Amino acid sequence: MPFPSLQLQKEYRSPQHDVANEFFAPVLACSKIYKRSVGFFSSTSLEIITKGISSLVKNGGKIQIVASPKLSEEDIEAIRIGYDKKSEIIEKRLLGELESKEENYFTNQRLNLLANLIAKDILSIKIAFKDNGSLVGIYHEKLGVFEDFEGNIIAFDGSMNESKTAMCYNYESINVYCGWLSEDKSRVELKIKAFDNIWNNTEENLKVVEFPSVTKKILDKYKTKDLDVNEITAKLENLDKEDRKKTEYKIDRSNMIGDVKLPIASPKLNIPIIPYDVDLYDYQKDAIDEWADNNFCGIFDMATGTGKTLTGLGAITRCSKEHEDNLVVIVVAPYQHLVEQWVEDIERFNIKPIIAYSTSSQKNWKDRLKRAIRDKKLRLKDKEFFLLVTTNATFKSNFVQEQINNIDGDILLVIDEAHNAGSGEFKKYLDSKFKYRLALSATLDRHNDEEGTDFLHNYFGKVCIHYDLERAIDEKKLTPYKYFPVLVYLTEEELSEYKHISAEMINHLKKNKSGKMELDTYGQKLAIKRSRIIAGAQNKLDVFKEQILPYKDKTNILVYCGSTTVISDAVKEDYDKSEIGERQIIAITKIMGQEMNMQVSRFTSEEDIETRKVITERFKSEKLQAIIAIKCLDEGVNIPSIKTAFILASTTNPKEYIQRRGRVLRMWPGKEYAEIFDFVTLPRELDSVPNHTEEEVKGDLSLVKNELRRIKEFSSIAMNRMDSFSLIDEIQSTYQITDKDLYGDNNSQEEDFNNGN
């Protein structure tokens, strides 16, 4: 079909137009030559290039692409000063851009086809930058030229880059010029001349270069199989069909102009929509379907890093659509920084949330909430939907509870890290006023709280998805890992103190309403004090020095400390009387920062949200080698670039150590697997156990069992699981512990304490 047969507009603006499908795809299908200069080179721009080109490829067409590198300030400064050759810096940046952060089937298939197009000289890529001697600037012009088989030419320019984000999510525009129209002819000729000058490297002050190493990287990284032209076009057509299906899924069918469906990313504000750059996996869609079939009530039990938040927002979108966007949504997260993480994703879904907590950037959030409730009650048009995102503490406040009671209409309650909602204080706020309910958690079951766990399951309903770490690793949603248990032994003073506190705790065991033994308030304080002896074991510091030494020059390291003090040699003699000591995190910071001269930063609750963002960005860019953290990574902080973790803070709570493991397993470019060094604390050296009395060994059992359970859990799905088996066997044999002893229900809590727990 020649170009004049197409019905083209003079201007396309997203999000009013689906630019990819309304302009690029039909024009490319009629083209024999496609010439395009874009703003920036990236893996997503390469993927987008393959859309709609099957007919062009089938008919022997050619594609020429000119792109610009993304240079950082450091790159430009290095070029100016002359540290490195500019071509080497640019090449490094281009290669870095090929480390795609997306890991899905369709992306990989398209990039494989693109690599085949390059191999067959159908597609050529050149890199352009402004070259003024010691200065390098960015070539940022966006223009394109199409030519059909009858010599008709279409040219366009505008703000849009050749990237998924630009085409599908940003607010962008292009202007279209048709060479067969008299009013456009001169403009088209100028565009053709401009592109040809660029391509042939004859444009003044502009350098256009081919980088063979970049072409090789594309072929090596993405070309999985040699394909002929017929195979390429067939696969392109199939992928285009799949894309059209996904587009149909994201079309708002109530928003039509004739037979033309406008994209779901319509300009209508504050209505939940799935953004074009979010492709939910099948397991996420299945979870949402199951939840909807259960009258929009249920639990998403998903391992850390498997897309729990996006699945939750997909569920919110589904519920809103099925209620014609007449819905109130309340999202509750434990901490302020988690609320802010939610806000980033909520806004991507076209929602303008009310952000409620004590130091919220929305200083008038209380007025916003009152106004939203009032507008909904008055049934004002386009005010039927609103979303409140808040912390646990603010959700329970008198003000928010009073406002919730004033809401007229259906409410969807979404609770993140929902295991926290099973506590006695929180439970009273969960009642029948929330018609629709969704619990999100990697570990919903509450440790040693069967009553709270039962409440959560009864209140939220069925588990709509159980997506654990093993499945996530198998399906390549999380990275595999190697596990290294590192043995540490208590000193005599520490063991004596541990047993002294254990004996005192026995006096604070009481039966609860269900007849189970539990600690009273003072007993719980003693338990915390005792756990800190394990977390802050003095010998951990020396052992840590040995373990960290091989990583002295490496990056992407997390060291997880306990919120505890380490008793120094100077006060050991007065251990029973003294609380003098150095916080473990300070001691570790000194070892790494001062003694080993590593670039490290602490990451604790003492750092505010902005400081944490700075630390995270420096860590991702490898300007920091290591983050030394306390507790806060249990609270949902997302730092996927962590590759090696040293966990000094021992815990017996499965919820905590499962979460800690999940934090380390998030996907990141170049991260083939993670490493976890788990500091396992035992009462005494294993070969000395036979030399102690039966009573002394019996007193060790509870601590040994707790540590052994964690070793077995961590090693069960590790890449090197066999390496841990001999240690597990040695510990079980030394203490004569069977699997029934570890996991059976015949040992009551009271018996454990009598044994020195």
TrEMBL record:
Domain Helicase ATP-binding: 289-462
Matches recorded under InterPro entries: ATP-dep_DNA_Helicase, Helicase/UvrB_N, Helicase_ATP-bd, Helicase_C-like, P-loop_NTPase
Keyword Cell inner membrane set for record: no
GO MF entry, a single one: helicase activity
Keywords, in A-Z order: ATP-binding, Helicase, Hydrolase, Nucleotide-binding
Pfam families listed in its UniProt record: Helicase_C (PF00271), ResIII (PF04851)
Domain Helicase C-terminal: 553-709
Domain of life: Bacteria
SMART domains reported for this sequence: DEXDc, HELICc
Protein's UniProt name: DEAD/DEAH box helicase family protein
